[in-house]
Design a protein that fits this description.
globular, two-stranded antiparallel ribbon, 2 helices, 2 strands, 71 residues, mainly alpha
């Protein structure tokens, strides 16, 4: 049962990560389709799974500026 898997490689709680990414994707797609400017800011890189995919689904020609505190 996928819901009971706590680790997948280095990913902790992969099922919950997938649900969160889908939720962010849905929100990003909905807001981008309304021609709203989106500036996703998160605590780790997993936020990009849903936000970039959602924005790119609304705009095929999109740019991305990635700022990493460790760079």
């Amino acid at each position: 049962n996928l819901k009971s898997v706590n680790h997948f490689g280095n990913i902790k709680n992969p099922f919950l990560c997938g649900l969160a990414a889908r939720s962010v994707f849905d929100l990003a797609l909905r807001e981008a389709a309304k021609k709203r400017f989106l500036l996703p800011i998160g605590g780790d890189h997993s936020l990009s799974l849903g936000s970039v995919a959602g924005i790119q689904s609304a705009y095929r020609d999109v740019g991305l500026i990635w700022v990493d505190a460790h760079a």
